[in-house]
Amino acid sequence: MEMTIDSSMRLVVVGGGVVGLSCAWRAAAGGARVTLVDAAPGSGASWVAGGMLAPVTEAWPGEEDLLALGVESVRLWPGFAARLGEAAGREPGLRSEGTVVVATGSGDRAELETLASYLDGLGRPVQRLSGKELRRLEPAIGPEVRGGLSVPDDLAVDNRLLLTALRAAAEKAGVAFVARNAAGVVDDGTRVAGVTCDDGSVVEADAVLVAAGAWSSALHPALDAMVRPVKGEILRLGHRAGAFPAPSRTVRALVDGRPVYAVPRDAGGLVVGATQADVGFDLEPTVGGVRDLLRDAERVLPGVAEFALLEVAAGVRPGSPDNLPLIGPVGPEGLLVASGHHRNGILLAPVTAEAVVAMLGGGAVADVVRVADPARLLRRANG
Amino acid sequence: MEMTIDSSMRLVVVGGGVVGLSCAWRAAAGGARVTLVDAAPGSGASWVAGGMLAPVTEAWPGEEDLLALGVESVRLWPGFAARLGEAAGREPGLRSEGTVVVATGSGDRAELETLASYLDGLGRPVQRLSGKELRRLEPAIGPEVRGGLSVPDDLAVDNRLLLTALRAAAEKAGVAFVARNAAGVVDDGTRVAGVTCDDGSVVEADAVLVAAGAWSSALHPALDAMVRPVKGEILRLGHRAGAFPAPSRTVRALVDGRPVYAVPRDAGGLVVGATQADVGFDLEPTVGGVRDLLRDAERVLPGVAEFALLEVAAGVRPGSPDNLPLIGPVGPEGLLVASGHHRNGILLAPVTAEAVVAMLGGGAVADVVRVADPARLLRRANG
To answer: Where do the domains of chain A lie, and which CATH numbers do they carry?
Structure first.
């Protein structure tokens, strides 16, 4: 069912990452007049991301709401990708090979067993595999890996193909792109009026969706302190002639307590990530961060030593105070936010876009999305 | 003394790296009509280089000729840099802080002692320092370093400032730049006639200097097999707020037998290199190569963990069969080569340019350069 939005509604989306583009595309397809404000759409955290769609291997006791949200979104992903491919006239790069999560030392194995038992308890059993069984599935996995879990439903997408497809689909659906940085959301005390840009121009709006990732909090006082930057370093590797083939599944690993992942790409490439650091708006990869990623990736997939190191990058994810995203109305009437997705922006784009379109059209928002209501943070701050 | 070259001589220099640019500048300053053919002057191995001017710490028993050539060139460097700065109107980035070479394990210390004894025997004594003394000189040096040598006369230059200055000086001296790739040198069986470009155009010449680095051998049959590519990976690091300051001297090290160096740059940056591999024309940095450089640099200078990793690159040095450069006439009349400088192109640029200008002007070539006569390789091939 497609939601219908009042076609006189002028929606301005601030931010052209995966969340902003997805919402803009779906809102325009649903009938809204959409303008997207971003000086460089498709750059930022969405561009440097790994593209895991992996809520189950990302699960952790106490984060049931985030797991439910992620599972719902990964369920939506194949349909979202199919519609996107058709609308854009190009494939968005969804991969269906699944995920394994593996452990090296005994502490790492104990932590994976905690995850497996937790999932058992939730009625989401996962398959436990020995090192030998893992190597039978993925011969690229090295001898230091002693065991792991197979989760075929945790998928992945090529985030750069995805961004290109989203932009094409948004353009075809009539989204107007304003290539400027947004400076703030303007309101008259009760309703939003538009978005000011850093050159002083104003884009008028009946509704504004702030989807500016880690930069969201600066755009309106109502968003203050809701989102903080969480730096991550990530590498892009290319297969070279003579090198051992890359795995076909996403390989997540714990190496002496440090998480690392390798997400396969077409042509045998791998995206290896990601560090995490609360160090503000810092987009510089460090020697120590890259050294950790290279060392840990090699311990899990020794053959990557012969791969090309094509790219070293850092991005800032939008972290929220409780690790859940912010999806819903906030502050003056007509202001919505879709941010705070932290490590899960690409995973959660379909469920976020569906919820935003429902909110704009006055439809019912899926139950699992209610936990993302930004009002919870105001309650917390006031209580 | 400035050499004077017949002003009717049309010299074509193939290759706009540090050697080609230096020769073109000096030849044009000496009176020649010079054209430099390169699709991208100032790129290639000269651009990715570290910029060490360090013949003494590079010395090794059996390579006395190379040492003498390097010592002569490092002696020329301050004057060359001063003339270049004046001619270009910008500083070429020469640093006068000197070099230390340090060792970690006992095998590394033994190898450094071999170098020191060798230099003692040549009458070029170097100062032996304990780890503590080294750390007093350069507090950035870490506790794994147990000893080393100080060589104040081994210098360094910022190779990128140098290339910019050389290009400016060459232009001001009247060098004409043809932004095309050379395909080959044309001759009539006895004399060179010009250079063909990959678009089929021909640049006519009375003399041709091939200074095309690792690509030199392909340009004329007389250069066949004289130069081969030797791949090297190299990193550029930037100081970040809060990180320990970089050393002020060049720090060369042996880490479990692997050589690594860190060359200081302005603003606290470091260039860390370099791997060596005989793998053909391969310009892709690998995971294994970068991992080695990061690990070894951290073992010598632990503070670099907090530095920014600004750039990862690979280049191909022009290696010669006997590790000495090729400077002099070869093949048909009017054909000269200045290539095969391997790891020492930037160091040897002044002595090479001086020799080439002397050869073009009919002047005397310095004794130390005679060993670089390409005829030695023909004799070897024929003998």
So the answer is: 10-48+161-225+321-381 (3.50.50.60), 99-152+229-319 (3.30.9.10)
